[in-house]
Amino acid sequence: MSYIGNNIRKIRTVKKLSQAAFAELFGLARPSVGAYEEGRSEPKMETLIQIAQHFGLSVDLLLTKELTVNDLYGFDIFQQDLQAAPAPEASPVARADQSAALTPFVRADRLLEYIVHYHDKSFVDALPALTFPHALGPVTRAFEIQGAEMQHQQQGLRHQDVVLCRRLDRAEPNLRAGRIYAFVTPSRLLVRRLVERLGEQQLKLRADNPDYGAQEFDLGQALEIWEVKAVFTTHLRPPSALEERVSRLERQVEELLNRLDKEQD
């Protein structure tokens, strides 16, 4: 069940907008707004993204939660406070260091927005920024991984891991077999390991999870190409079977040595 109709009505109430004024903001017909609010139809994804961006909300929130007027006032006040509060002045060196280390972060719930606006500098600049220690150049991205396609035997990229990437030239990408790349396409973020180039535009890609087969990919589908250089995870890696056996043997040897020492005493 979508809550978009009720949320649009409440947004208009908080913002003191008529249906006609709301429709004008997003290039809609006034009857369309009425149809949304009455549940007779729903906005297209592009319109949803525009509404979410304009009011500082997420598409997921608009669709899956019935917002209260207090919720919306909270968002509104928060945005105003952010705009009103002057940022402390940093030294030129500090500003340079900070900008060099900042990486725009694309959360999974904002991926569709990113696909629509990836070329819009103001949109990218407004994304949350993460600070990583790296020397990958001035253009980097951090993407949140969804799914387990790149995970195998407790190794690899897990669901909700964050990958740090550097941008490659779309016209002449320097792609190497065995490395992991993130391809932003019109419909999704595809993260795969390169097996080989089949031609100038065709690639053979595979997931690290053997449950997913290899696939061919046309570089012409890629809006952006990123090379994955690092992963940041909240999952602690369990010891491998070999490491467990070695650890057990070390404990047994230590116990034997302690026993021999006691017998000699």
TrEMBL record:
Residues 8-62 form the HTH cro/C1-type domain. PROSITE patterns: HTH_CROC1. SUPFAM superfamilies: lambda repressor-like DNA-binding domains, LexA/Signal peptidase. One of its GO terms (molecular function) is DNA binding. Keywords: DNA-binding. Signal peptide: none annotated. The keyword DNA-binding applies. It comes from the Bacteria. PANTHER family: HTH-TYPE TRANSCRIPTIONAL REGULATOR XRE, TRACRIPTIONAL REGULATORY PROTEIN-RELATED-RELATED. This is LexA family transcriptional regulator.
